[in-house]
Amino acid sequence: MSSPKVDLDTMRHSCSHVMAQAVLDMFPEVKLGIGPTIENGFYYDFDLPRTLIPEDLPILEKKMKHIVKQSQKFKKYEEPADESIKFFKKIKQNYKVELIKDLVKDGEKKVSFYENIDNQGKGTFVDLCKGPHVEHTGQIGPFKLTSIAGAYWRGDEKRPMLQRIYGVCFPTQKELDEHLEMLEEAKKRDHRRLGIDLELFIFDNEVGAGLPLWLPKGAFVRHKIMEFAFNTYLKNGYDPVCTPHIASADLWAHSGHLDFYSDEMYGPMMIDEDEYRLKPMNCPLHVKMYLHRNRSYRELPMRWTEMGTVYRYERGGVLHGLTRVRGFTQDDAHIICTPGQLKDELSRALNLTLYILKTFGFEDFEMNVSVRDPENSEKFIGEAKDWKMAEKTLKEVLHESGFKDYEYDIGGAVFYGPKIDVKVADSLGRKWQLSTIQFDFNLPTRFGMKYIGEDGKEHTPFMIHRALLGSLERFIGVLIEHYAGAFPAWLAPAQARILPVSDQFLKYSEKVCEELKEAGLRVEVDYSSDTLGKKIRNAEMAKIPYMLVVGEKEVKEGTVAVRDYATKKQEVMKVDAFKKKVLKEVEV
Amino acid sequence: MSSPKVDLDTMRHSCSHVMAQAVLDMFPEVKLGIGPTIENGFYYDFDLPRTLIPEDLPILEKKMKHIVKQSQKFKKYEEPADESIKFFKKIKQNYKVELIKDLVKDGEKKVSFYENIDNQGKGTFVDLCKGPHVEHTGQIGPFKLTSIAGAYWRGDEKRPMLQRIYGVCFPTQKELDEHLEMLEEAKKRDHRRLGIDLELFIFDNEVGAGLPLWLPKGAFVRHKIMEFAFNTYLKNGYDPVCTPHIASADLWAHSGHLDFYSDEMYGPMMIDEDEYRLKPMNCPLHVKMYLHRNRSYRELPMRWTEMGTVYRYERGGVLHGLTRVRGFTQDDAHIICTPGQLKDELSRALNLTLYILKTFGFEDFEMNVSVRDPENSEKFIGEAKDWKMAEKTLKEVLHESGFKDYEYDIGGAVFYGPKIDVKVADSLGRKWQLSTIQFDFNLPTRFGMKYIGEDGKEHTPFMIHRALLGSLERFIGVLIEHYAGAFPAWLAPAQARILPVSDQFLKYSEKVCEELKEAGLRVEVDYSSDTLGKKIRNAEMAKIPYMLVVGEKEVKEGTVAVRDYATKKQEVMKVDAFKKKVLKEVEV
């Protein structure tokens, strides 16, 4: 149907025009907003006379298919800006008028349009647009309108709320089907839904938005992940530190956070006459500990780690389950080192990142290097030579770790230094930014951090921030979707549930339970009076890694009939063999 | 010297008069404040023409000894209040004038005095005083003036700052000597000093008063203690939960904290239009999780534990190292149970308390039961029958655990329920209140907590709060003094340090270090070029449990010369034998 030579993004953009044309056909009074492409598809914002309902989407899709079938041509032309404003005013497209006025402010004299022309040479739809577009609508591949949402005009809560229609579009039906299937699967794995179903966490209005409350099972998983990461860091030469969740405003002024980061910080609170703030980052507190006495090069590198809970303001509208919250725990660390130690430390941090992420079954990594824009050097602090050296070192480290391909974002660095961000693909292929390794040229200078070098003179150390899981809350949110809620045995709150076929096997069940518990496994017995079928369904709903069915044969032979949640296979084993199998499996 | 029949408190009170007499002799212009007895001694507050220096104390002691030797009689008499005011005005004792005016306000018409009379029948010192006193100063036992401090008149920061002299007084010289020795030892063990010397924690003005920053070694000890307690709770049928450090003011209004506890709470902070508060307690957040769905009796008892960091306001003047801070972590738990489960749960909580405390070497416990005052029942919420039952249960549980003697404090209960507080004696015999087990009749009612009973009807569960270490910060402060900074091997940041006699044994040292580390021990090598003597002194200063000296003989025989910090004994062992010994020792 579609030409394979057509650029994906161009095709999706054209598809958004076709959707707008269909909407205009359905609602002649519609006022058009904007319609850009996004990952896998596009959207378009509309000001409509009534609220859309899901049933509208198939109607629109039918109209769109009709337009595609007609192979309407995309024709580009330019007009003077003032003429165009008049034109859009006349047809009452006030959002377009506003857009052109902004272009004029930016110095544009002419604006460009794309018009769809049908096979009778008649214009069917025209939109203010820079393009490019496909030649004709026949080149648009299979598509589907996926959802409707509200969106403020220009993202501003004080402007009108428009209705946004999302769609996806692919070169082939197979790709579209696969994508839709993935979306369906993603919906099932939504961590917000699984969080409730599996009793992992809740949010509560009276407590406050974006502040998760971890129920026992969720808190257990969180504890296990934290324990694993923390112990891994200690084994890898990190030392623990621990700092309070609040500090006086003086500290945040000194660190520069009140200047550069106050929008993300919670409002002040008073203690006696002093103003305090919740910490949005742990860094200045670690710096304070470094400063408490003189330091020598012999103490470097220092690697200080803290499971530090920080609070950052997010607008209510962008909060999303665990992946976007207002309070979260970072597996934070600061590495303070000499210039000579820098590369080795970065390399260690990167390898540790990969080890940690691989432990959770992530295998597909995308590296992003964000550096400063030398054309805009006033937006970044620190010496040009330090930036150059740091950026060079980051790239070398990636190369030497086998990452020859990476995204390179000029100007994407934080104001205080360049960084590597690691994105991982989950089991559905969706990418999530998790780990970050960042340079900091700000705090060492601001706080006058020094060490006495081998030469007996004072030097300023380098400081690296790193958070490998990133935010624990976000990480667990991603993990729940990655595992579809079925945590591997080493993380699962209950690793096995024993299901007696009937009450007469309870005693044996309890004996097996005790034996496994003594070996350190987390096991429970189903004491309900349910049928075996119901017991199995309940254990599957709870996504417990192993079900141990126990009946007359098992009692006689000292075995358990093991049903594996992941493989759905069943196998009868001696209790001891099962014990050994799981103990081996949970060794991380 | 002193009569054994003399009441200790009376004798100490008399000693404070003698001190005032000596001060008056030295500074005739002195204005006298008050001079009560305290544990082991007394103090007296003075308004003096110059600041006291430590060298003043022996001079005063000499004068006091002289007065004691004279066996001056204590003579009591009463005077009309108005006459007394005139008298004190005349001799310019304005603080005494204020005290009498307050007595008059309380309805007193007469006030009593004690006058010291020397052997010529001459009055030497007179003080406004209710008494009682010893018959004569010769009955006062050995004493010592211990320190000078500033103290606001009547504890009010807006009134003048007086100078307070502290003294101790005992029936016998032996008891005084022992006490002074204990004070000397306590000074050496002061956790604020050891905290700095051993690099455990710091406080920082820019961060804020009462907010400890845990340096690596302190953070490690803190982590180990937390890990031990947390794992112990999980093994004992507790489930973990985890909640944020802030919640909206709505929650704290609902829980009653804004009514009953706001003085201890940090000021409000705004998020969008909503007011938030730092949590002073974890309870309402746990209650919220209980409420998120219907509960059945089958789920009870529920035991939810959280290492919850809370923030409570304390006046700057009362902050003291780790034992009185503004932010601390509780090893908190809430047990929610049916009436039938109550006694067993309290008994389990008490036994767990003893197990936890004994693990840290505490052996001497004092139980305190605090109940409501039935005469003042309006100060306590909940039904009389519930209080009665709860108090009875607490006492029964103590009895059955072998605590027949306990302090009983009528009216000392918290407003929401009776409690058991556990005080422990440290290695110097000083008592510290650590653990608490409390009933809560407030929250279950306020939040409408319910469960469906076996009868199919709704019931209100009982709720028990308990914190066994209490505040981790306070606990570690006590522990540092209890251990004099020498942590037992299971808690020590470094368990052993290898001291090569010279550099040629470094290779063997490293091999031993690796072997021990692989077994999970925390070992380091002294790489310095110091002499062996200096290396030993450094390891002793760092209070490392084991020093492993390594020289030619040890290399040849595959041994280490183990010096035990605690016993100061030295013993040569095979590396493997040392490994086994320590591994056995650190099993908690």
Gap between N and C termini of chain A? 50 Å
Any low-confidence stretches of chain A, pLDDT <50, length ≥5? none
Give the oligomeric state: homodimer
Taking all Cα atoms into account, the compactness measure Rg of chain A is 29 Å
Number of helices of chain A: 18
- On the 0 to 100 scale, the average pLDDT of chain A is 94
Describe the structure.
2 copies of one chain form a homodimer. Chain A is an alpha+beta fold and 588 residues long. Chain A folds into 4 domains: 8-189, Threonyl-trna Synthetase, Chain A, domain 2 (Threonyl-tRNA Synthetase, Chain A, domain 2, 2-Layer Sandwich), CATH 3.30.980.10; 195-243 and 282-483, BirA Bifunctional Protein, domain 2, CATH 3.30.930.10; 245-281, no CATH class; 496-585, 3-Layer(aba) Sandwich (Rossmann fold), CATH 3.40.50.800. Chain A is built from 18 helices and 28 strands. In chain A, the strands form 7 sheets. In chain A, strands 11-15-16-23-20-19-17-18 form an 8-stranded mixed beta sheet. In chain A, helix 3 (81-90) runs antiparallel to helix 4 and helix 6 (191-197) packs across helix 14. The longest helix of chain A has 20 residues, at 216-235. Chain A is globular. The model of chain A has no long low-confidence stretch (mean pLDDT 94).
Structure described in brief:
Chain A is α+β, with helices and mostly antiparallel strands and 588 residues long. Chain A contains 18 helices and 28 strands. At the A-B interface, strand 10, helix 7, strand 11, strand 12 and helix 8 of A face strand 10, helix 7, strand 11, strand 12 and helix 8 of B.
